[in-house]
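Subject: complex prediction, re-run

Hi both,

The earlier run crashed halfway through, so I resubmitted it with identical inputs.
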Amino acid sequence: MIMEQLAGNMVQGLVLGSVYGMATMGLSLIFGVLKVVNVGHGAFVMVGAFVALFFFNALGLNPVFAVPAAFAIGIVLGLAFYYAAIRKLLHAPELATLLATFSVGVLLEETVKMIFGSEFRGYNWDLGNVDLVFTALPISKIFAAFGSVLIALLLYLWFKRTRTGSAMRSVVEDSRGAEVCGVNVDGVYAMSFALGIGLTVASGVLLTMFIPVGINPYMGGGYTLKAFVIAVLGGLSSPYGAFFGGLVFGLIENTSYTMFALIPGVEPFALTRFLSFLILLIILLIRPTGIIKAK
Amino acid sequence: MKNRLRPYYPLLPVFAAYLVLFLLGRNVAGMWQLTATLLFYCALGQAFNIFLGMTGYVDFGYVAFLGVGTYGMATAITGLAGYPQLGLWAVALGFVLAMLMATLLSVAVGAVALRLRGAYFAIATIGVSEGFRFLIEGANLWNGSSGMIFTSQLNKLLGRDLASSVMTFWADVLVLAIAVAAAIVTLLYMKSKIGYALTALREDEDAAKVMGINVTRYKILAFITSACFAGAVGAASWALKTPYVFPPEVFEIHYTIEAIIIVMLGGAGTMLGPIVGALIYGISKYYLSIFLPGFQLFIFALVIIFIIVMFPEGVVGVIKGKTRRTAIAPYIL
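This time it finished cleanly. Structure:
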């Protein structure tokens, strides 16, 4: 019984984990290229969730259409915030960028609250279930996982095969060296920030498949913290590391919940969150470059 | 005589500000509530500045120290409620416990997190604060997520009249005392070897290390001092003023952000900065919530982005730069 439950939760964990991973790639990309931690990360995920909600409820379009729209909105938001604030803070102490990105997150939350209000909403994209022996998996979630893997692969190809992609990689390696070699570093910064935000907003659409009634302007905070743990698992500056970090995190979250639920007198949900932060600290302490990608 | 006292001149505007604030709060009807909030922000900023301002390290989980301080006071009051003869001594013991617990946590966190720098440090400290909160809730420490309510124990210990005057007045006076103490410690640090070492560390940690400064020692000292004051602030402003404690409230990340905003607004690493920041932040928050309810966060976010981009050195930082070599320069630090 418990083994079946565990196996079922692991499958669910992998499916959710792939979306977690995709939702963290933007954070890692921005940190890798600009060395900026986007503390407002979750707010961009929230914007994506609202894009999905708006497409489904107001326009009657399913989330497949919302993903590219959310990505485009993210690119625009990313460029706007980069040129309005982030660009001027690249050489300021961390304090400035941390506070600026946090404030950007608050700005988004408050704007969305003014437009949509602060109650919890949701939508239901019902495509039926796939019945695995030990668990039932909604087809919409499979779509989400498939979308995440596809986007991760496209990003991988973009990095490996395009000129801009290799320019970005060169800036990650050594921004001054890249500048000397004629790379337009400022342009790469702007593009990476926009791309990172675009990915994050798009991931918000995919996440809505997992939270039927959890869409709210303030839903982002929890995702920011999860994304930190996932990004650190993946080495903080590698988008692919982040993707695999997401898979690992999804597995840990779901299996540990099943385990903690066996202990009497504790709250398994809170202990799962505790475990994730414990992992964060241990990894930061023993291997700040992440456990996924040894370099 | 004059020269020997000169290093202490910066305390004068600090004391003057607190005196004016206190007198206004006492003598203008209906002002005490706002004064109490402002005193809390002053103490919070003053305590956080010792670490954030002096080292340049961003502790994103600072609220955890206020949180454990609150739990320290709560534990002492509930545990000692059976000994009413202790009276106010129980509150004193509560402060000792609160500061002790904050210090212990800061030693543990410091040993782990202070090996990291920059963004890694910030993320690690968020992890500590959130992790600690979920440990309390998950493992049902201190009643877990149902929290602790200890109004009746406080009444039993102090008597109903004294307990209510502690909650409505004396708790805030204690917060003021903590703010003053933190200001004095800030000045003592700044004027001693510690301050110079921390300045060197903030500007360039590797260079400071090469120069033979034991950077780790001074970093940890500033971290522990700051945490210890935070524990006391939590005990006075949260536990004594409102005798209950719930994990999501006392580990709320917004308090850390407020502390950062206050320090940054006033000028990180300056003596007067936290007060100026606290007054600007507290007063504008209060009036915005009256005149533009629902919009205050939106406006704040815009203002903060503007300030970070345009005046990263803060109000006092700007004033300091403008008044160099004038008669008031010795008073501004």
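Chain A touches chain B through 49 residues (CB under 8 Å).

- K.
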